[in-house]
């Protein structure tokens, strides 16, 4: 039983606080003795059993994330508690994607007649019959379950908010009389027929994405709708939307829509997404002067001049649209976010007028000259990767920049010293030999992969760094890394490194990659107790005893090293992913063969140790293992005889003996 939970309950019974947070207490729902303490807690109105949960804000039409204030072990509920406070009004018992719940039976909820808000999303619920009499419910979130039959909901007339996303609902008839509904989420089900939604006249927010809907005619009477999401369906025509004059947010991503003329009838439309449709003409949007955000990416449009009329736009996305000329942007001086990736841009001079821009994406174009950017003093995020940029000096005075991606360009020199608020910088795959970054004291992430850098002197002063990628350079001296004591991720693969002693001080490292170097000795690694991912493939390491104490390792790549004795790995109980040259070992140890792989991420290593399970000699290997482990000398002699009869040499037997008894 959780001591933390018991302490919190006892304190609550004393203080009579109407709110009790038992998130992150290591609970699973089987602790009857614990929950029995609450059975007479009439004062308790809100009970939180989730580690974190999302609450939909109807006024803002978005989600707010909440986290438990407790710091203990995560809750993972396999069943509902048997006992609940009798006057409970709010119950938060949702799983999350990191800790999905396993609740199936919700019978214990049947008598909680005062419940007004109930969160049970991300569980394994199929039958919701126990909810049928909870007529006080106003908010019900049962997203991400296995629900097919929603008929128990038909009597919940007070429901104003219902979340049924990611279930198996096909029949929505039970919802037709829920006239109090203002928000309904039916995304990711198997819906085709939405006829009965036409009766829900008070709906303000409706999510129908990821279904099989073709006909949206039933929506034409929902004149109170202000937000409608229809992504990933098979919709072809939009005439039904012409009557929805209150619509402010509309998403039509990935349908079969060709004609968007009906949208002209929606004067209040402020946010629109039409990505992934075979639209031929988007000029009907020119009169939607209330638009503040438009995403029309991946639509091949010749003339975008009409966008000049949409002077209220603050966010515009036109990625993958074969755009060459952006002169139409000149008058859109309220833009704060602009995404133009994957086009055919060369001249970006019209951007000099967009002085309010904070986020700009120009990646995957043909840009050489970024001089116009020097005027954009409010930029905080710049993506210009995969272009032809050589000169970065136009960026040197953009002091609000926090994120820059210039990967895959032709940069030879970096002029970014003044960007003291920069937190993330990617200069991967350029032509850099030296860089000067010493003033970037707030830098947290730096990638200089695939350049021509020979030393790490430039890292002096970058003490805040948490992630550093220097792989595929010409570095042999890593002495300056010793001062980067906040590093959690470090990639040094494909360099000329022999001595890794400077890594000794980097005790916060969690992920380390040292592939393709000249490393022989790895004793330094024994100090890096927080490592959970380690790779030093293609080096000259023969002794891996230093790994013995790295108990947090779950991923290890040590292929292409002259390693013979892997016995130290036997006690690394958290290992899930392991690649080693098992075919070079004398034979496969049993624990090796039985390792469970989370997944094989690297394509060049297709064979797994699990292959050994099918080898005919494996039973004899197991028998030899058991005999050698015995304290009886006669059994050990029998093991030796059995091994020799299978053709094992004395050296092979000695190595295996060491595996069994390190």
CATH superfamily of the domain at 3-151: Ribonuclease Inhibitor
Task: Write the CATH fold name of the domain at 3-151.
Answer: Leucine-rich repeat, LRR (right-handed beta-alpha superhelix)
**Number of helical stretches of at least 4 residues:** 6
Mean pLDDT: 91
Overall number of strands: 27
In the CATH hierarchy, what is the class of the domain at 3-151?
A: Alpha Beta
Nearest-angstrom radius of gyration?
31 Å
Shape: globular
What structural class should be given to the helix and strand makeup?
mainly beta
The description of the largest β-sheet is: 25 strands, parallel
What is the share of helical residues?
Answer: under 10%
Uncertain spans: 596-614
The proportion of residues in beta strands is 5-15%
CATH architecture group name of the domain at 3-151: Alpha-Beta Horseshoe
Oligomeric assembly: single chain
Separation, N- and C-terminal Cα atoms: 38 Å
Describe the protein in words.
The two termini are 38 Å apart. It is built from six helices and 27 strands. It is globular. Helix 4 (618-629) packs antiparallel against helix 5 (633-645). By secondary structure, it is mainly beta. Among the domains are: 3-151, Ribonuclease Inhibitor (Leucine-rich repeat, LRR (right-handed beta-alpha superhelix)), CATH 3.80.10.10; 621-660, no CATH class. The chain is 9% helix and 13% strand.
């Amino acid at each position: 039983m959780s001591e933390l939970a018991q302490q919190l309950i006892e304190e609550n019974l004393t203080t009579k606080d109407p709110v009790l947070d038992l998130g992150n207490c290591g609970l699973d729902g089987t602790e009857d003795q614990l929950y029995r303490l609450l059975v007479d807690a009439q004062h308790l109105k809100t009970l939180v059993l989730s580690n974190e949960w999302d609450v939909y804000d109807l006024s803002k039409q978005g989600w707010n994330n909440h986290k438990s204030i407790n710091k203990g072990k995560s809750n993972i509920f396999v069943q509902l508690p048997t006992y609940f406070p009798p006057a409970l009004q709010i119950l938060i018992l949702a799983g999350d994607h990191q800790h999905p719940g396993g609740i199936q039976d919700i019978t214990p909820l049947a008598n909680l007649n005062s419940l007004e808000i109930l969160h049970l999303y991300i569980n394994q619920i199929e039958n919701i019959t126990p909810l049928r009499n909870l007529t006080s419910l106003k908010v019900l979130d049962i997203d991400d379950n296995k629900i097919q039959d929603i008929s128990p909901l038909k009597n919940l007339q007070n429901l104003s908010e219902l979340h049924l996303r990611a279930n198996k609902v096909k029949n929505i008839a039970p919802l037709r009389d829920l006239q109090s509904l203002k928000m309904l989420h039916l995304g990711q089900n198997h819906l085709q027929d939405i006829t009965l939604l036409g009766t829900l006249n008070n709906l303000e927010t409706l999510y129908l994405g990821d279904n099989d809907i073709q006909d949206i005619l039933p929506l034409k009477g929902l004149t109170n709708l202000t937000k409608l999401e229809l992504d990933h369906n098979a919709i072809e025509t939009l005439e039904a939307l012409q009557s929805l004059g209150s619509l402010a947010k509309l998403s039509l991503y990935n349908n079969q829509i060709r004609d968007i003329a009906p949208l002209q009838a929606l004067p209040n439309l402020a946010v629109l997404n039409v990505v992934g449709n075979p639209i031929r003409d988007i000029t009907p949007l020119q009169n939607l002067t209330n638009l503040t955000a438009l995403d029309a990416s991946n639509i091949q449009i010749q003339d975008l001049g009409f966008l000049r009329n949409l002077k209220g736009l603050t966010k515009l996305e036109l990625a993958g649209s074969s755009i060459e000329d952006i002169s139409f942007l000149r008058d859109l001086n309220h833009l704060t976010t602009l995404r133009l990736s994957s086009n055919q841009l060369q001249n970006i001079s019209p951007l000099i007028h967009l002085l309010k821009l904070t986020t700009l994406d120009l990646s995957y174009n043909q840009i050489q000259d970024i001089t116009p950017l020097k005027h954009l003093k409010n930029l905080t995020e710049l993506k210009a990767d995969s272009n032809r940029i050589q000169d970065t000096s136009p960026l040197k005075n953009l002091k609000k920049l926090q994120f820059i991606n210039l990967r895959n360009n032709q940069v030879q020199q970096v002029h970014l010293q003044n960007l003291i608020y920069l937190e993330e910088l990617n200069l991967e795959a350029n032509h850099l030999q030296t860089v000067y970054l010493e003033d970037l004291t707030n830098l947290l992430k730096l990638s200089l992969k695939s350049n021509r850098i020979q030393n790490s002197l430039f890292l002096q002063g970058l003490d805040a760094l948490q992630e550093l990628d220097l792989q595929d350079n010409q570095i042999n001296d890593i002495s300056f890394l010793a001062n980067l004591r906040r590093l959690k991720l470090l990639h040094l693969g494909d360099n000329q490194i022999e001595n890794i002693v400077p890594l000794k001080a980097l005790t916060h490292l969690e992920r380390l990659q040292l592939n393709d170097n000249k490393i022989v000795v790895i004793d330094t690694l024994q100090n890096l107790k927080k490592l959970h991912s380690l790779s030093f493939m293609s080096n000259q390491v023969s002794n891996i005893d230093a790994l013995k104490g790295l108990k947090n390792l779950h991923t290890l790549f040590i292929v292409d090293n002259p390693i013979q004795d892997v016995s130290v790995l036997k006690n690394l109980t958290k290992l899930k992913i392991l690649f080693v040259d098992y075919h070079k070992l004398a034979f496969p140890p049993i624990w090796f063969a039985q390792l469970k792989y989370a997944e094989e991420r690297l394509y060049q290593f297709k064979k797994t140790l699990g292959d050994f399970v099918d080898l005919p000699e494996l039973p004899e290997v197991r028998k030899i293992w058991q005999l050698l482990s015995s304290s009886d000398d006669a059994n050990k002699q029998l093991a030796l005889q059995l091994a020799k009869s299978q053709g094992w040499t004395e050296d092979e037997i000695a190595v295996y003996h060491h595996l069994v008894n390190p």
